[in-house]
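pinned: reference chain
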Amino acid sequence: MENKKTKTTAPIVESSDEITVSDPMVLRPKELPLVVTLPSNASGAQKEYARILNAYAYQNPEKWAEKKDVLIKRLKSYANLETLNNQRGGKLVIGGQNNLGE
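pinned: its structure tokens
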């Protein structure tokens, strides 16, 4: 996974009396920085799980802080797998019953 850091300058919509107003759609980042980045030789399962972990970290920051060590240990254990579909008979999901924090 590649972490692309691009900074765009928002065009000024209005400027008067030292007050600058910019377009919020331009200011809003299109891509969030990755919480988990992988080396180039990561397995397919690690890449898939890292995508899930990145979403989980942003959607559940409190839970991420509590479970981070366990989740990263699990990510490392997927080094020799090509897909997560082999794990526990199905795909991993965020929310409800999942195996992110077991």
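why pinned: The beta strands are 12-16, 19-22. Residues 92 and 98 are 6 Å apart (CA to CA).
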